[in-house]
Fold this protein.
Amino acid sequence: MSTNVYHENRTDHHAIIIVNLGSPATPTYFDIMRFLREFLSDHRVIKLPKVLWYPILYGFILPFRSRGLIHSYEMICDGKAQPLLETTKRLAEKMDERTPETTHVRHAFRYGKDNIEKAISELRATYPIKKLTILPLFPQFSASTTGSVFDALSQWASKQNFLWNTKFIHTYHQHPAYLEAVCNQIKRHWKEHGQKHLLLTYHGLPKVMLTEGDPYYCYCMQTSRLLAQQLGLNETEYTTSFQSRFGRQEWLKPYTEDVLKELAKEHRKIDAICPGFAADCLETIEEVKVTYAEQFVEFGGESLTLIPCLNDHDDHARALIAISGPDAF
């Protein structure tokens, strides 16, 4: 008997691939360097001409930044695999368990070994796929994240002689299922620990991207307003900010560090959540949970508590299935 599913079952199948950013495979110098090299060589991320950027990247950033990040990555993985990698994998598995037999959910990363092309190739070799949905795990579209995933998909497609019926989900920042999942995460935390002032902190971008038409800032602000509306918060009960900036150019404001100074004057304790991240990672665990919590105390506050990302929670799996669309199956 043939073991080739394609020949045994001619029913059309549907593939959903959730795509996260990626992370170094291990918290070691060379793995971190390999990840940063691929990430920072993406023209969507760094828009400088290569002739100007590559001497900086290879001469300074890769050798020194890679070494400087070893401790940070060691801290967030705690001797295990990188949380973003494992969480994204488990999330795809949970989604796969909740979909029909003819729908197959897999994970991929924009940077690293488990890329989109690998995920598609494995699905093609196993199932008679006729429909493909690509769902980047970036709720708020930005050219530097979702746009880069589209580039990778296009690069794969450019080499194919046949293309499946493909749907690309470019943003889901205002999808009811996503908003409900984030609100439920916040409510669960408040039920256990009590309600506090809520800081919604998003990954920053250079301001020039906004002026050139990237809608990310607008989508983040809209996300905050919609979440506050569903939580019943007024404008004094939540704050939006942007983190993770580097370099000398101006980034999206207000900066989280500046916001913390002001919040420490008015609140002894605050909660922080990162609605732009699907899974906890270096920017949420090391930067917010540790660094920003310490800064808040230095500024005069008592405590900053990180509300975890949706990660592989059942609510997240259900939400992403809904976001894939009613025509997904």
In short: The two ends are 28 Å apart (CA to CA). Confidence is low (pLDDT under 50) at residues 1-9. The longest strand covers residues 13-20. The domain at 176-306 is CATH 3.40.50.1400 (Rossmann fold).
